Batch of 4 targets.
Target 1
Amino acid sequence: MADQPFNAAFGQAQQQMQKAAEEFGRMFQAVPSMPDMGGAMASYQRNLDALAQANRIAIEGVQAVMRRQAEVVQQTMAELAETVKTLSGAGIAKIDPAKNAEAIKDAYAKAVAHSKELADLMQRANTEATEVLHKRVSAALDEAKALAGSK
């Protein structure tokens, strides 16, 4: 008889535990199934790879622009030194205003052409980098859609 209160309490505790387990199970039935984690991680890795590739392209573009700028500066300095040498040897009396105007016009045209060339280099690099990212975003959205549909 001494065991009856214990058995009754134990029975109640067992029923409460069973009820809690059932509620716990119902709670997880409402949670959607987990996506394919391997697929999600592979997709994430492809995202990182595309970002790294786009960064490499952008850096290579900046390096190309910097190299070309250095070449332009070197060329401009050589031309400037030649112009100074020519003008200093000619003397004030022999300076031809028409020739000077033509030289200034040529220098301006070269500067504009060099600026356009540098801008084109940067635009090409940016376009390539953006295209890499665009393709990856499109593929990532397709992958997400497939992962969502595979549940």
Note: The chain has a mean pLDDT of 81.
Target 2
Amino acid sequence: MDCPECGTWNPEDKIHCWRCGADLPEPAQRGGRHKSSSQIWLWVAAVLFLVGATLVQCGLVRLGGGGGTGYIGPSLHLF
């Protein structure tokens, strides 16, 4: 960010100009590291899907019917 008084470039985290000492305006966004909750839930869902798919592929979890109940639908069997 440039100083409004002398035009000298200053890092975004500074509150005073290093050259003339003038107060710098506050940046538009500080700490843009926070993700929205929808992005976080998307990542959580993707990780859970991948873990589930890996368990099924490795044979640790079996999806499907069986058991002779006559019910045709998804079921989860753990070994």
Note: The first strand starts at residue 61 and ends at 63.
Target 3
Amino acid sequence: MLIFDEATSSLDSNTAEHFATTINQLKGKVGMFITHAMPKNLLVDEIVRIGQGSLSAVPAQAETTQMNTKKREAEAGAHG
């Protein structure tokens, strides 16, 4: 099992996407990503959201879109 804890948090968007492309090539491996901003091209089977004292499964596409929108908004605020 590969565990990545905030592996892309200090990367720019292009580098994070390159990282995700490389990880996607590790077919058949089990990985866990702990992140606030998942690269949009990272292929995942399942997303589990932790919050307010509970765990909940979330559709992967919906969660990825929401996380990346929040990251872009935060980056825009930091540069604006």
Note: Helices lie at 13-24, 60-79.
Target 4
Amino acid sequence: MQTANTLKAATLGLFVMVSVSCVVDPHYYGPPVQPRPAYYSPYGYYYYPSVQVYFQYSTGFYFYPSGSIWLKSRVLPTRFRLDPRDRVHLRIESNRPYLYHHKQVKKYQSPKDHKAVPENDRHERNLLHKWHKEQQQYKKEKRFETKSGKKQKNKKHR
């Protein structure tokens, strides 16, 4: 009888350990990785609703508000904290994404209690830099996106 109880307790303990180890904290690991285009995409942006920042990964430029105007820069001021949990992939056919900002504000809102973590910010900025370099390589290899958003490999002229 005691052996049966010990076996039940051990089984229950093992079940609890396995169950607890399978819990994933989405705030730590972030959202599922969004697929990036494997071709040059001049209209691709990442938008961060909590800080209202756009990143155009084909050019490596950030667009962010400063008072009543929008600024464009390769380096984002440190007052902005980027968080992958807050990243939205957009396709805007313009080099001035802020012209459509009123649409993004209505469509994408960050949670009221959202708080960016400095470690996530540093990691996110490094990833954005890496993705910009990938885009430059795709451009060099002439792997382009067409107006319809489909992949196209440019043919060499004879």
Note: Helices lie at 2-21, 26-29, 101-107, 118-140.
